[in-house]
């Protein structure tokens, strides 16, 4: 009996670790930086830094305080050249993909704007498994072990 309880407890703990962690996003502020972006754990400071970067090209960007965060991936082009690229944490109520460009940058074309709420969802590194995939596989293996030893 204790063995089953232990196995189920370990399985639940392993699955819940991902839920307990804070959101992690890729961050970069230029097209060159975005070729090898860094990872950042989302905080108010990180989200407000992204808001500051957004305010360079966009109107009416506010600094906020919140416990909720999204990841942002944004790219602007002009004459088929990437002019501006930004990845980072953002407060959902900033509505980054709906912001209006400042008149000086109105000729830029928004070729990509994505907000998402999963770890590192604002860039998909090739050849890497996401933590969600690992969690699903671990859950299936855990259930198989419970069935075998039950």
TrEMBL record:
<keyword id="KW-0732">Signal</keyword>
<protein>
    <recommendedName>
        <fullName>Protein sleepless</fullName>
    </recommendedName>
</protein>
<keyword id="KW-0812">Transmembrane</keyword>
<feature type="transmembrane region" description="Helical">
    <location>
        <begin position="129"/>
        <end position="149"/>
    </location>
</feature>
<feature type="signal peptide">
    <location>
        <begin position="1"/>
        <end position="22"/>
    </location>
</feature>
<keyword id="KW-0472">Membrane</keyword>
<keyword id="KW-1133">Transmembrane helix</keyword>
């Amino acid at each position: 009996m204790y063995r089953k309880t232990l196995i189920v407890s370990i399985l639940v703990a392993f699955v819940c670790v991902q839920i307990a962690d804070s959101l992690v996003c890729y961050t970069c502020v230029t097209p060159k930086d975005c070729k090898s972006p860094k990872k950042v754990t989302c905080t108010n400071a990180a989200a407000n830094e992204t808001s500051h970067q957004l305010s360079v090209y966009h109107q009416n960007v506010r600094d906020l305080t919140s416990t909720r965060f999204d990841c942002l991936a944004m790219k602007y082009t002009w004459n088929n050249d990437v002019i501006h690229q930004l990845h980072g944490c953002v407060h959902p109520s900033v509505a980054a993909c709906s912001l209006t460009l400042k008149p000086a940058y109105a000729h830029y074309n928004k070729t990509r704007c994505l907000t998402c709420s999963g770890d590192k969802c604002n860039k998909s590194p090739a050849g890497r498994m996401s933590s969600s995939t690992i969690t699903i596989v671990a859950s299936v293996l855990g259930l198989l072990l419970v069935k075998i030893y039950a």
